[in-house]
Specification:
The structure is a single chain. The chain is mainly alpha-helical and 227 residues long. The chain has twelve helices and no strands. It is flat and about 65 Å long. The N and C termini lie far apart (69 Å).
Length: 227
C-alpha cells in the first residue's frame, strides 16, 4: 500500500469502472448519512477511491451530483407504480411513494423545493396529469388538481422530514414531543377551542403517514366529485 508524504497509508485506487450511476449511488449514501453538508467532491473521491479528474469526467460539480441523485430517487418512485393499475390506486401509490421517498431521503424535499422543474419531477407531474385524465377529471380542472396534489405531497412530506431532522438533533423524541404538545392542548379553554381540545388524544397517538394517506383519500374523493 502506498503512503502519503506524512507516511500514512493511502487507500488503494479503485479498479472497477466509474460511471455517473456509481457516483450517484455513492452521493446518495453520503447524503443519507450526513445530509447535504456531507456531500463534497472530496468525500466522493475518498468513498469511490478515485481522483477529482475521474469524478469531473461524469459530473460538473456538487450541484450536478445532488440534482442527479434527486432525479434518481424520483425515477424509482415512478417505477414503483404499475402501469395498468387502477388510476385512483396509482395516484395514491404515487403520492405515498413520494412521501416515503422524502421521509427516507430528507434532502430530496429540500432540493425539489429549490428546483421543482427537475426532469424527474416533470415526469411525476405528467404521470399525475395522465391519471387525472384517466379518472375523467375535466380538462379545465386538471391543472389545478395536479398542482394541489403535488403541493400537498411536497408540503406535508417536507414538513415531516424537517420535523424528524429537528427531533434527531435534539434531546426529545417524537413521542415526548407529541406528549408535550398534547398536554398544552389539553390545558386550553374547551369553550374557545372545542376542536383542538377534543383532538388532544388523537394528536398524541396519530401516525404522520396515516394522516397523510387520509389527506390523499380526501383529495381523491374531491376528484370524484368533479367528474
Amino acid at each position: 500500500m502506498k503512503k502519503t508524504a506524512k507516511g500514512a497509508p493511502r487507500a488503494p485506487r479503485r479498479t472497477e469502472s466509474l460511471s455517473r450511476d456509481v457516483i450517484v449511488q455513492a452521493a446518495t449514501e453520503l447524503l443519507d448519512g450526513g445530509g447535504e453538508s456531507a456531500l463534497t467532491l472530496r468525500a466522493l473521491t475518498v468513498r469511490l477511491r478515485t481522483g477529482y479528474g475521474a469524478i469531473y469526467h461524469h459530473v460538473a460539480d456538487k450541484g450536478d451530483v445532488l440534482a442527479a441523485a434527486t432525479d434518481d430517487v424520483i425515477v424509482r418512485v415512478l417505477a414503483g407504480v404499475v402501469g395498468d393499475a387502477d388510476p385512483q390506486k396509482a395516484l395514491r401509490c404515487l403520492a405515498l411513494g413520494l412521501f416515503d421517498a422524502i421521509d427516507a431521503h430528507p434532502w430530496v424535499g429540500a432540493e425539489l423545493s429549490r428546483q421543482p422543474w427537475r426532469p424527474a419531477m416533470l415526469d411525476f407531474y405528467e404521470s399525475i396529469g395522465r391519471l387525472l385524465d384517466a379518472l375523467d377529471v375535466p380538462e379545465s380542472a386538471r391543472f389545478d388538481a395536479a398542482g394541489a396534489l403535488v403541493n400537498y405531497v411536497m408540503g406535508v412530506a417536507g414538513q415531516n422530514a424537517e420535523n424528524a431532522r429537528r427531533l434527531a438533533g435534539g434531546d426529545t423524541d417524537r413521542a415526548a414531543f407529541l406528549d408535550d404538545a398534547a398536554e398544552r392542548w389539553a390545558q386550553l379553554d374547551p369553550d374557545r377551542y372545542p376542536f383542538v381540545h377534543a383532538a388532544t388524544t388523537r394528536l398524541r397517538e396519530h401516525s404522520d403517514r396515516d394522516q397523510f394517506i387520509a389527506g390523499v383519500d380526501i383529495f381523491l374523493a374531491g376528484m370524484a366529485a368533479l367528474r
